[in-house]
Design a protein that fits this description.
By secondary structure, this protein is an alpha+beta fold. Helix content is 36%, strand content 21%. The protein contains 17 helices and 15 strands.
Length: 467
């Protein structure tokens, strides 16, 4: 392809801003270019057949009255097809304009396929080093006049001048021809992301963070293969993924060595950063514990309460129903009194719908001391469910391994241990553990992991032979 003989159509659209799938065009401008020669120009308002939001009107100046007498898209569709025929489709952030236009044609059941180039991506490669590649800031840096900003014609005219400037640069032909190759997906790559950041991603397990221009985390994800997983976001055509990619300016990663640690790290970071595009795991869950205390009669009483702090290493439930179910089991197994287990009963404890095994402590038919012996046995059984154990996983490199620690039934954290270290005690292993805050999601992750791989659970009494 000879770029000097190739026709390009520089395009800019103004839209209703209603999400990628529901975005309707309110204005279009196209300039057909060959080399530095402008061959033709097309500009038109478009009736979007829907109300234009106020924030769009304040940005573009286009309101419902202006578009009420404009042609429908179906009335200008053939003009657009003819104008762009045999030309390369060019836009500043081409994915947006191209996909919106293609969706308009899809509503008419018409195909629209053109080769495309993005002046954001081209500018990053051909003229690197600018602090921002937004159209306004880039034109200001390059001395390109940009008048009537956020109107289709004004933005198109500025993009034409930018594209003509790029064509004159020494590397232009090589960069553009590479981007136009059939297997190239430059047009789907986040326009504001420096590709070198993506190229530096390793193909290992870990956690990745997408950040916006202000370095704010907008998405956290985990991966077995970081590079492959991150790339999958860029080619996802769903509206949510598309809009997220438009905001990505930076990508960072944290190697974890294993999928388990990646899952645990992801859960922690989502609650820490509360990212805009993470739908799951953001809602905090209450945690419950089985409490026990002596009442005024000296009887050990049980109750289910909301945990105030993770400092208490008692059994944790993230569902009140699960905590009540466990207490009912204790009550039955140790012949405890439903009333002294805080279950609602009417006239006497045997009115409980399920538990009828009370020996009469609530009616003074059993000595408190005898009852408390069984209550203490129940407490001991409860405490024994809070096992302390480790999970050994791969490290981030071949020179280390990872330990995940659960203490008294509660997730404590994880740490990486050099292979040459000889771990001889729980205390020594714990010194490598980086403290983490447990939550509902880490509890579910570890429960699911142990259910599938019970052999990975290293009990402390087997420590000397397990590690």
């Amino acid at each position: 392809m000879n770029l000097q003989e190739q026709d390009f159509v520089i395009v800019d659209l103004e839209t209703t801003g209603s999400g990628l799938g529901g975005n309707r065009i309110t204005e279009i401008c196209m300039v057909r270019l060959r080399g530095e020669e402008i061959l033709d120009k097309y500009t038109s308002l478009v009736d979007p057949q829907m109300l234009i939001p106020d924030f769009i009107t304040s940005l573009t100046g286009i309101d419902n009255e202006m578009t009420s007498s404009a042609p429908l898209f179906e009335e200008i569709a053939q003009d657009i097809l003819d104008f762009t025929k045999d030309a390369v489709f060019v836009a500043h952030n081409v994915s947006f304009d191209y996909n919106v236009l293609r969706n308009e044609f899809k509503r008419l059941e018409l195909p629209f396929t053109r080769k495309k180039l993005c002046t954001v991506r081209l500018s990053r490669k051909i003229i690197p080093g600018f602090p921002s590649y937004s159209l306004g800031r880039l034109c200001n840096s390059l001395g390109i006049d940009l008048v009537n900003r956020h109107r289709a014609e004004g933005d198109t005219d500025a993009t034409v001048e930018l594209f003509k400037l790029l064509l004159t640069k020494p590397d232009a032909s090589e960069v553009m021809l590479k981007a136009l190759k059939p297997k190239s997906r430059e047009g789907t790559f986040p326009p504001h992301l420096d590709r070198s950041q993506f190229n530096e991603l390793p193909e290992i397990p870990g956690v990745y963070l997408f950040k916006n221009q202000a370095q704010k985390v907008i998405y956290v994800g985990k991966a077995i293969n970081l590079k492959k997983r991150v790339l999958s976001h860029f080619y996802n055509k769903r509206s949510k993924s598309y809009h997220m990619c438009q905001e990505i300016h930076h990508v960072e990663h944290i190697p974890t060595g294993s999928e388990l640690v990646a899952l645990l790290q992801e859960a922690e970071l989502i609650l820490h950063y509360y990212p805009k595009y993470n739908a799951a795991q953001k809602k905090p869950r209450r945690s419950y514990q089985i409490l026990h205390y002596k009442n005024q009669k000296g009887v050990i009483q049980f109750a289910v309460g909301v945990m105030k702090s993770y400092d208490s290493r008692l059994v944790t439930h993230y569902s009140r129903a699960h905590a009540v179910e466990q207490l009912e089991q204790l009550c039955e197994e140790y012949n405890l009194c439903p009333r002294y287990c805080s279950f609602n009963t009417k006239e006497h404890c045997t009115s409980h719908y399920k538990i009828k095994s009370c020996k009469g402590v609530c009616r003074e038919e059993e000595l408190v001391q005898l009852y408390n012996i069984r209550a203490n046995q129940a407490i001991k059984a409860l405490q024994e469910t809070n096992a302390t154990y480790f999970i050994q996983e791969q490290g981030r490199t071949e020179d280390e391994f990872c330990l995940v620690m659960v203490k008294d039934g509660e997730y404590v954290g994880f740490g990486f241990v050099p292979n040459h270290e000889s771990i001889e005690s729980v205390e020594q292993a714990e010194s490598y553990i980086e403290s983490k805050k447990p939550n509902y999601h880490t509890s579910q992750i570890l429960r699911a992991y142990i259910e599938k791989r019970p052999g990975k659970r290293l009990e402390i009494n087997n420590w000397s032979t397990a590690v």
